[in-house]
Structures are given as structure tokens and as C-alpha cells.
Amino acid sequence: RSDYSDDAEEHMPLITNLPPGIAPLKRRRKRTNLDNEQKAALDACFIENCRPDHTQMSEIAHKLNLDHDVVRVWFCNRRQKLRKE
Q: What's the alpha-carbon Rg for the chain, to the nearest Å?
């Protein structure tokens, strides 16, 4: 073991003393800022199909170089926006 790994362990918070049934908190993902081209492409896809399946969303995410969850949440939010209008 290197000295570096020992230092890392010293600064790691101990989560072993949490009460049973309480999981450690996950870190929130950083907000994704979409550029104009990505927004336009997502809008075009939404006009074509407002409820793409998992495979279609994965294809869209791959084409736009985005995470699948970002695309999924964008479509969900866009449907909510449409419902409010």
C-alpha cells in the first residue's frame, strides 16, 4: 500500500456508524446545460414522438452526446410543460 492511499482513508468519512435502515446520501448530479443545437434536436424529436421508448431515448442521447437520464428527464419535463399550456 502506498502512503497516498493511507492519506485518502484518513479523510474518508466513516459511514459504518449509521443507524440501520439509513443509507448514505448520494451526491447530486451537476446540472446539464444544453446548447441551442441540442435543444433544437430534442424539440424536433419531441414533435415526432413525445413518448420515445428506452431504445429511442438511448439513440437520441448517443447522437447528442448526452446521458440517457438527461434525455429522459428532458422529455418528462417537456410533456409537463405541454400539459400546463
A: 20
pLDDT at residue 17 tops 50: yes
At residue 53, φ and ψ (nearest 5 deg) are -80, 180
| Domain at 32-85, CATH homologous superfamily | Homeodomain-like (1.10.10.60)
Question: Quick one: how many helices (H) and strands (E) in the chain?
Answer: 4, 0
Alpha helices by DSSP H, listed for 1-85, are 3-11, 36-48, 54-64, 68-84
d(CA 84, CA 45): 20
- pTM equals 0.68
